[in-house]
Predict the 3D structure of the following.
Amino acid sequence: MKDMHEFLNAADLPWEGVDGQPGVTERVLSSAPGDAGELTRLARWAPGLDTSEAGVIRHEYYEEVYLLEGELHDLTLDATFTAGHYASRPPGMPHGPYRTATGCTMLEIRYWPASS
């Protein structure tokens, strides 16, 4: 289960680098202990970031992303998304790779499918 907070001021959290993802910083708002994959964070991508080398992304958790500022270009779809755009991805859904000329900040929520 993720951390509980009653109106945490996200601006008080430092931006921290993300291991293995140069150009990405995050403010973790809530996460499950260990590497459970459950996470709510603000993620900031630096201007010029290009994830082409990583290829198309797939993961085993649900992911919701809401762009707060900046722009994100999906290289597979050849479409650019800006503040106010939202994505909801079930486990295994292919997405990306991405490029951002201006950088972007997004709210990202990850969670596992319910057990049957």
About this structure: The beta strands are 16-17, 24-31, 39-45, 62-74, 79-82, 86-89, 98-99, 104-111. The CA atoms of residues 42 and 107 lie 5 Å apart. The first strand starts at residue 16 and ends at 17.
